Amino acid sequence: EIGMGLTGFGVFFLFFGMILFFDKALLAIGNVLFVAGLSFVIGVERTFRFFFQKHKMKATGFFLGGVLIVLIGWPLIGMILEIYGFFLLFRGFFPVVVGFIRRVPVLGYLLNLPGISSLVDKVGESNNMV
């Protein structure tokens, strides 16, 4: 429960920091809370194994490098690197998330609209590119 709360607050602070024109302090707090929450949810050892798998080193470098750059004080560049690394790291979960959202009544209808459906299908593909 603590891990989910920390992760939720981390996502909130990251989102709020981006809305407020990439506020350094909010983004730094969001990054720290997100990584700490992830560690609480799945455990420190499993978090370390997740981030430092051999085939995910590029993605981990972008994600953690982006976190470091945000903490140093360059939030825009850091968030670009971090978002790219996040998508590389968690792209294996996207098909599951897309499948779940398609079963939600209102959101599923929106995802099946003609223009959005092809984009969501591309995001939901489970091919490995790293």
Automatic annotation (TrEMBL):
UniProt KW keywords: Golgi apparatus, Membrane, Transmembrane, Transmembrane helix
One of the GO BP terms on file: retrograde transport, endosome to Golgi
Cited InterPro entries: Got1, Vesicle_transpt_Got1/SFT2
Membrane topology: Multi-pass membrane protein
Cellular component terms (Gene Ontology): cytosol; endoplasmic reticulum; Golgi membrane
Keyword Coiled coil annotated: no
Cell location: Golgi apparatus membrane
Stretches assigned to coiled coil: none
Main location: Golgi
Function: May be involved in fusion of ER-derived transport vesicles with the Golgi complex.
Name of the protein in question: GOT1B protein
